[in-house]
Amino acid sequence: MKLVRHAYDSGIRYFDTSISFTYSDSQAIIGKAVQDVRDNVFITTKVDFWDISKPDGRFTKVPRGEAIRQVEMNLKELESDYIDAILIHGTPGVEQMTVEQCMEVHGELVKARDKGLVRFVGFSAHHYFDKALALISTNEFDLCMLAYGYLPRGNSRLFSPRTTELRNACLAKADDLQMGIVAMKVLGAGMLGGSGKKELEGLPSAAIRYVLQDERVHMLTIGMRTPVEVEANIKTLVGDTNYTNEDRALLASVSAAVLSDENVKKMSVE
Q: How far apart are CA 219 and CA 228, in angstroms?
């Protein structure tokens, strides 16, 4: 909770969380940390759908009313009367669902928006960008969160050239429709975090500046674990954000090493 409050006191106003098990108890922590300044922050959280009774986690029908139930659970954990943005979680969620199922959930979330429980409705996508493009093209969502960074990776997969092309099509279409675009995996899920090495201390800043080149991106969501990381990222954002030749060289060198790592080579490519 102290780290969240430190982030707020340092100037951060956007917080991303979820009720999902993958986020542990972060939602409750964020809710408590900013309770007295709730109207000064923008909180994004999520609903997700995962049928553990099936080996691949897929399901044939979205439980009616489940999205609203999860919205209410999120509100309770956040100790708030409203949620700024509610997303259909990418994984688990959009990845396992059809476009039609996503739109059913969207319909429930719009009802929550109409009741004043949420302000904006969106979704996130790690790599299934054909599906994401179809959702964006409905022009029914307020925002989308897409995996976008120097390293071509999503949650657990590396991007093929075709996947990168589809991701770029998502960015272009969302921009055309004036949707909000949030970039995640900016640091390659930690792979470009610098690992505390002196010679790599400029690596996170270079990765951030790479994404900031794209004026279509409105927000970056970056995981931070220590006050030092918070302060370093803020320093990058308030400083010179021009993407330099030094940034290019550093990212190219480190990324080549990362992608040649034996564990990374075992990641599927999609």
A: 21
